[in-house]
Amino acid sequence: MKKEPFVTNEQLTELVKQFPTPFHLYDEKGIRANVQAVKEAFSWNRGYREYFAVKAEPNPFIIRILNEYGCGCDCSSMTELMLSDALGIRGEQIMFSSNDTPPEEFQYADRLGAIINLDDITHIDFLEQTIGKIPETISCRYNPGGVYEVSNGIMDNPQDAKYGFTKEQLFEGYRILKQKGAKRFGLHSFLVSNTVTNDYYPALAKTLFELAVEIKEKLDITISFINLSGGVGVAYRPEEQPNDIRAIGEGVHKVFDEILVPAGLGDVAVFTEMGRFMTGPYGCLVTKAVHEKHTYKEYIGVDACAANLMRPAMYGAYHHITVMGKEDAPCDHKYDIVGSLCENNDKFAVDRMLPEIEKGDLLVIHDTGAHGFAMGYNYNGRLWSAEVLLKEDGTSELIRRAQTPKDYFATFDCFDILKDMKYDET
Ligand SMILES: *Cc1c(COP(=O)(O)O)cnc(C)c1O
């Protein structure tokens, strides 16, 4: 599918007068249409809820939009819980799916009334000692081990993943939790990341639904909710076919009717914890070409760097790039598009065929709406960019300002680093 930016060249030319590059731009209209489609795709399930994976895009403005459609928050750290709390998203609207969890985070999650999703059998005792009880509602994360294959080569290796209970531990865990007073049980699993196929959720649902039936038969424990977690992917490459959430919802519906309904488990609520699918395609990184360099290769130096978008540097991930105003020009130049970090992997694209780029051209790096800004870091003292929301009516709003040197140095409590500096804030 041809990848087109959600913003026009005219709009962007206006935006950069107001917001200096680089910045992440988000598409409110796209986010709303998508969350509405997600809601409809699972409307057949009475208890359905999407818990937005806050780590994907921890911005209160974005989370609030999703919450309007009933989305809760999937949190796994103190500050993610704080963000949810600050937005008034509390109680069973929070899924606390953490691992290697510090005690104070279990305490805070419990105070908020969050659903706690345990990552390990030893956390049963740890939780009980930490909060003085076992909550009535509790969930466990399952890791089947081995290799998990969905379809045509889409697979991962749960055996190498640090998460979850083994099957034996899971059965033992539920038995212990029931004995300690738990009354409502959840089952969770996350087996493959960024799946660009409509088959992943249905395949995972089948695995978990069959397991829920087995748990009922062997332990006489009724699972109340099954959490398919994240992993629904984004078509980052133009040759990929984007996932169809309606087909995914129908696929889960089908196995639900085949497996859970006949087993008397037709009241089970289906939960999801999607991050990438909820916001990934509805964000982009806007950056400007600053330098061109001709050595053994052709380089375009832009004003963003891997500190603003780590995925290409970290995973060699593909992010599509549009040179604004040259959407229909032939892609007859081969470039490495690079940032300024003193790290040779700071490249948004390698050997990418693009139209001829001139200094001052605006580049849109696509699909940065999830795990984009959020994975930012401060290496080389590079600062976080701003985040801007392009609203439905075409106006824009700054939803996070850019970091300043003052922010960057703020943790030197015992050394006022800015005091004797000749740096001018303007
Ligand atoms: C990261 C994560 C998610 C979201 O994953 P996506 O790939 O962004 O959908 C959901 N649940 C848990 C526990 C996670 O760690």
TrEMBL record:
Its cofactor is pyridoxal 5'-phosphate. GO terms for molecular function: diaminopimelate decarboxylase activity. The keyword Membrane does not apply. Keywords: Decarboxylase, Lyase, Pyridoxal phosphate. The modification N6-(pyridoxal phosphate)lysine is found at residue 55. InterPro entries: Ala_racemase/Decarboxylase_C (IPR009006), DAP_deCOOHase_LysA (IPR002986), De-COase2_N (IPR022644), Orn/DAP/Arg_de-COase (IPR000183), PLP-binding_barrel (IPR029066). PANTHER family: DIAMINOPIMELATE DECARBOXYLASE, GROUP IV DECARBOXYLASE. This is Diaminopimelate decarboxylase. The lineage of its organism: Bacteria, Bacillati, Bacillota, Clostridia, Eubacteriales. Residues 31-279 form the Orn/DAP/Arg decarboxylase 2 N-terminal domain. SUPFAM superfamilies: Alanine racemase C-terminal domain-like, PLP-binding barrel. GO terms for biological process: lysine biosynthetic process via diaminopimelate. It comes from Eubacterium plexicaudatum ASF492. The active site is at residue 342.
